[in-house]
């Protein structure tokens, strides 16, 4: 059974806190952009389109805008967490696993298979 040192655990905890802080910041930025990007067309369509004026009340408008902002937050934060986890797992991998280049037949991959 292997023992884990206190310094190693503290280092991993600090890394996790930094990663979650970066993901939160990325999510907030995406939510702010998404709020502006969804609020303008939503509010303008309620003013200009008769159907929207008759069917979308202020609560509906707020729901549309906040749903878009929430989705953008979670999507951006999740993407950031996954990219940081991928980067850190690659950095901690043994040397023989880091070389992921494939030396195959020399044929180029189709565009959708490229790494």
Automatic annotation (TrEMBL):
<dbReference type="InterPro" id="IPR005050">
    <property type="entry name" value="Enod93"/>
</dbReference>
<keyword id="KW-1133">Transmembrane helix</keyword>
<feature type="transmembrane region" description="Helical">
    <location>
        <begin position="60"/>
        <end position="77"/>
    </location>
</feature>
<keyword id="KW-0472">Membrane</keyword>
<feature type="transmembrane region" description="Helical">
    <location>
        <begin position="21"/>
        <end position="40"/>
    </location>
</feature>
<protein>
    <recommendedName>
        <fullName>Early nodulin</fullName>
    </recommendedName>
</protein>
<keyword id="KW-0812">Transmembrane</keyword>
<dbReference type="Pfam" id="PF03386">
    <property type="entry name" value="ENOD93"/>
</dbReference>
